[in-house]
Amino acid sequence: MNSHIYGIDFGTSNSVLSIFNETTHKIETTLSVPSILYFPDEYDPALPLKYFVGTAAIEQYIADGMKGRFMKSIKRVLPRTNFTETRIHNKSFTAAGLITLILKELKNKADAIVGYDCKKAILGRPVFFDDENTLNDSIAQKRLLQAANQAGLTEIRFQFEPIGAAFAYEKIISQKEKVLVADLGGGTTDFTFIELDPAKSLEKDRRKDILATGGIYIGGDSFDSAFMWEKGTPYFGRGVMYESMPGKLVDVPPSFFSNICSWEKMNFFNGLKVQNDLRQYYSYSKQNEKLKNLITLTENNLGYSIFQSIEKTKVDLSQLDTSLFEFNKFDIDIHNTITLEDYNKIINRDLSKIDQYLNTFLSKNNIKPEDIDSLFLTGGTSMVRAVKQLFNTKLPHVKVKSDDNFISVAKGLAYSGYLFQ
Ligand SMILES: Nc1ncnc2c1ncn2[C@@H]1O[C@H](COP(=O)(O)OP(=O)(O)OP(=O)(O)O)[C@@H](O)[C@H]1O
Ligand SMILES: [Mg+2]
Fold first, then answer.
1. Which domain holds residue 94?
2. Counting atoms of ligand 1 from 1, which one is nearest the CA of 311?
3. pTM of the predicted protein model
4. Does the CB atom of residue 188 touch ligand 1 within 6 A?
5. Looking at residue 144, which CATH number applies to its domain?
6. What tens digit of pLDDT does each residue of 64-76 get?
């Protein structure tokens, strides 16, 4: 008999699906795709709209000279009520509609493995999609549910992502433990404090073991934005002055630079007025070279590409003490040595926020450091050295554990079949 459950972690950066076999109680395989969509500029209205998902989207976008609609971190739009739809050629897409395409990609691949159209899935969700507005949070979950339904997954349960991570960790321990799980991803940092017991892993109801959950809207994307502000924007004219009237020098508005700090906001520069303003600043700054870089960056859609360089610098610094921040496209020439110390300073504000949130989480839930037997760190951002350091300093007596940072949530979601009971 066919009987599988898909554990699906739709992430800001990566989306992962684990196939759980309900007969053998084992995970058969785990698939993953970057959460990226690309719609080429060229299209034929007589044909279905062409699009690419994941690695194929990145490859095609680059092959097409970075033209067309390239979408990353789509999870971020889920709670945004002001995002109703976006038009791509002759078709309108809601947030759910876009996410459907990513979920479908994963589902099709998984269905090909199990050999039938599996409709049953446990979907992960961050503890807060929006940590300030509960209405937006419920809208986000509804949209995600709709996306799953449209992708052909009709029997759905939701599970908090960090609880998923905890259940994955439960498979690698041999005795009862009270565990603090910290899942640091691209968009959010989520916590759960849970009592794990390998003997209980097949039990029907695990609700009472979950002692506390919480989260904050900070992740690897925020680190990359902070990096762009500190180390990138000076190459694009932050601090440059232009002559607003003869003899009167003023700064180019800072909004120009905050908008290039998250690559999706760079669309802001597609507006005609903005382009005109930018050209004026360029000319009234006596053709400042850095403002020319900004024009080049925005006119040639180099947003994704520069953020790739920023991410590479970050990933290097998870291993090395120095790295090069390099970007050479058109006339833009960035070549800057970044030390681990520089990097830690750049992300210090975000780290302090995580630190403060963790204090609140522990005190609000009456968790004393001595109550914690171990700390399970997961998610791509948990590889940042200052992040590890933060937890080591805060909970020096606690054993730190980890597993595969990119797939543990999906695996644990797939182990959450009790939600169907
Ligand atoms: N070696 C590394 N060192 C530091 N950061 C890394 C490394 N590898 C990946 N990252 C970062 O990890 C993040 C992606 O992690 P992950 O796949 O866990 O996120 P996600 O699940 O998609 O996001 P979320 O759970 O917030 O929705 C990105 O910000 C990426 O830049
Ligand atoms: Mg995640």
1. 4-172+404-420
2. 31
3. 0.95
4. yes
5. 3.30.420.40
6. 998 899 999 999 9
